[in-house]
């Protein structure tokens, strides 16, 4: 009777899932709208959780360091509060430093670009006229780009505003609404992240209680292991990536400062931040920085390009492996695949989080495969022997001669 009940429950689950899948596909438009609205509602909480995760990394470090001075364990709340404050001070100070470096540098680059543009076009024009193979493109290049300047940009903006004069008030109203909703969302995200960090121990204990109350101990142990593995993988990946980015930015700044290349501070930050995105980030950062330097000096841009390629090889092959070690445990081919697929599906955010996600899935799947092979009695030597075994067409017995006769 009990076996019949289990079969009935499984059959009921399949039927219910089939009905839900049918209605979900039939009303796919309404489902997509509902999911979009739900995402807009919970987006501040998702971002708040992500912010809390980032802040928890320095916070846990400070807590572990301060715990050495609290032998009795009576000052845990004070230690947590001080660690949280220090973590926020560290993050805010880093943002202030970045803004103070980037904003003046961006203003300087824009000003230099506006001044250097005619000279830059003339230099390219003379370079194209110098060689017979590129001479036909010289006049076309000059006519196309020489007239581009801030006067034309101003006229284009003025014409655009004149054409949309009737919509100016509605545009301003929608802009104010977007700003107010954005401020509310940022405030909610900030408060929610602080709430998570203050009550993280209580939230973890309550989550464990609910998990073991609703599931069997074996399944709850596995889910708890998955969550712990995911947290530590994301933490180790983010920490090692940030340290590697800082090292790359310092190397870029020192090299550019020694070689007297322009915009050393801003470009070192751009190169470092772009390196957060594996594979494609360094390409974009190097190309963008090379173009900025090329506007001022083509020769210096080539020097920067060569230097950037060298230090990126050092960073990828020496610095980052020394920091990360085998904590990620993902082969290069899977890194390429995860970044490409993650970027195609979710853009930049997909590129950022795809590697730790795939790393967790890769580790869990390999663990399961190892358990299944162990149950079947396969050891490593037996598997290697089967892997190295070569099969050729002439070695396969098909007995085709009998059919031909």
TrEMBL record:
GO terms for biological process: transmembrane transport. It is a multi-pass membrane protein. The chain crosses the membrane at residues 12-29, 41-62, 83-107, 179-199, 238-259, 265-295, 302-323, 335-364. The keyword Transport applies. It comes from the Bacteria. InterPro entries: AI-2E-like (IPR002549). Keywords: Cell membrane, Membrane, Transmembrane, Transmembrane helix, Transport. It is found in: Cell membrane. GO terms for cellular component: plasma membrane. Pfam families: AI-2E_transport. Belongs to the autoinducer-2 exporter (AI-2E) (TC 2.A.86) family. This is Membrane protein. It comes from Anaerococcus lactolyticus S7-1-13.
């Amino acid at each position: 009777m009990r076996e019949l009940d289990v079969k009935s429950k499984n059959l009921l689950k399949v039927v219910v899932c089939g009905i839900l899948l049918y209605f979900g596909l039939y009303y796919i438009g309404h489902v997509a709208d509902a999911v979009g609205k739900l995402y807009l509602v919970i987006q501040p909480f998702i971002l708040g959780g992500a912010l809390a995760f980032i802040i928890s990394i320095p916070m846990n470090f400070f807590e572990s360091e301060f715990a050495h001075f609290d032998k009795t364990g009576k000052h845990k709340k004070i230690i947590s509060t001080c660690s949280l404050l220090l973590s926020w001070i560290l993050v805010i100070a880093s943002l202030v430093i970045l803004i103070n470096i980037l904003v003046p540098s961006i203003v300087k680059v824009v000003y230099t670009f506006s001044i250097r543009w005619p000279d830059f076009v003339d230099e390219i024009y003379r370079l194209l006229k110098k060689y017979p193979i590129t001479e036909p493109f010289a006049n076309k290049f000059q006519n196309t780009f020489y007239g581009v300047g801030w006067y034309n940009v101003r006229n284009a903006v003025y014409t655009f505003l004149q054409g949309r004069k009737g919509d100016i008030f509605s545009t301003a109203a929608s802009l104010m609404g977007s700003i107010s909703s954005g401020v509310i969302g940022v405030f909610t995200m900030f408060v929610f992240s602080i709430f998570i960090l203050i009550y993280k121990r209580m939230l973890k204990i309550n989550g464990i209680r609910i998990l073991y109350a609703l599931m069997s101990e074996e399944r709850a142990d596995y889910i708890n292991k998955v969550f712990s593995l995911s947290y530590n993988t994301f933490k180790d990946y983010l920490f090692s990536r940030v340290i590697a980015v800082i090292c790359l930015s310092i190397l870029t700044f020192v090299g550019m400062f020694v070689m007297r290349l322009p915009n050393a501070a801003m470009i070192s930050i751009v190169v470092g931040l772009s390196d957060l995105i594996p594979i494609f980030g360094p390409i974009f950062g190097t190309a963008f920085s090379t173009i900025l330097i090329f506007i001022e000096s083509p020769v210096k841009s080539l020097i920067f390009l060569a230097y950037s390629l060298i230090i990126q090889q050092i960073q990828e092959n020496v610095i980052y492996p020394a920091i990360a070690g085998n904590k990620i445990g993902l082969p290069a081919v899977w890194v390429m695949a995860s970044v490409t697929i993650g970027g195609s599906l979710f853009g930049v955010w997909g590129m950022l989080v795809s590697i730790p996600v795939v790393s967790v899935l890769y580790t869990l799947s390999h663990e399961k495969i190892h358990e299944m092979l162990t149950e079947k009695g396969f050891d490593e030597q037996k598997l290697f022997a089967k892997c190295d075994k070569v099969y050729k067409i002439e070695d396969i017995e098909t007995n085709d001669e009998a059919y031909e006769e």
